[in-house]
## 1
Amino acid sequence: MVWPTRLSEGQMPASCDEYNPLFSPCVPYLVNPDFGIPSPRCCAGAAQVFGKANNPAAIQKLCTCLVVTMPSLSFKPQKLTQLSAACKIKLLFPIDKCIKA
């Protein structure tokens, strides 16, 4: 099976563009249940994006973008919840509650 590696126009609302450093390089990891380790580029993007989620408003915006984009990008929720641990990123919020909200 071929997994997408780039985002297509319209797969992500413009208000979520700032999260491209997470979405674009992490697509192979987030859509493929058998993709074991995220790439260094994915981890760098995830660290950048998760680092900005440092207050309630920023966390809410990230959560909203994740919930809106996950279905169109075919992200696996379990892979998203594993991403911070796989990249050794300490989150300031529980991402599992974020995407199940």
## 2
Amino acid sequence: MVAAAAAATDNPLTCSLFPSQATGVLQWTERQCTRKADALTVTATFELKPPPYPMDDLEPHMSKDTFEYHRGKHHRACVDNLNKQIDGAERDDMSLDDVVLVTYNKGGPLPAFNNAAQNRRPDYTSTSMEKLVSWDVVSARLEVAKARAAEREIEEARKRKEELYRRKKPA
């Protein structure tokens, strides 16, 4: 079990609800503690990972400052609180999805459930946004639309000139 936990320490968490297995917002990290007999114990904690896009990509709908505040305060607090709540518990080596399921406790949520679920939401959002919106495709389509608009404008100006020329031309 220790070897398995140590082997998986730098692997990002994946979501078992999505078959794509996209990289999530949280990842396992290795924490080593020595005990009286110098035994090595490896436990997993959740850590906030940067989103898969720049923090100002949501502008003008959400400012970079708002996004940074939300991640830096609210989401950071959820991650830290979850780590405190599962520290030393049987849930210490579970995936985030497993923590959500176990702490739901058949409809009687345990204290760690809210923080685990709150940590699951940005993972879901990032995964969904990455799947639904390809910023490269959006940028390419925008450039094509701008080029077409410029071509239409040039064509309309050409037609206006022709019309003026026809009106001025003696019959």
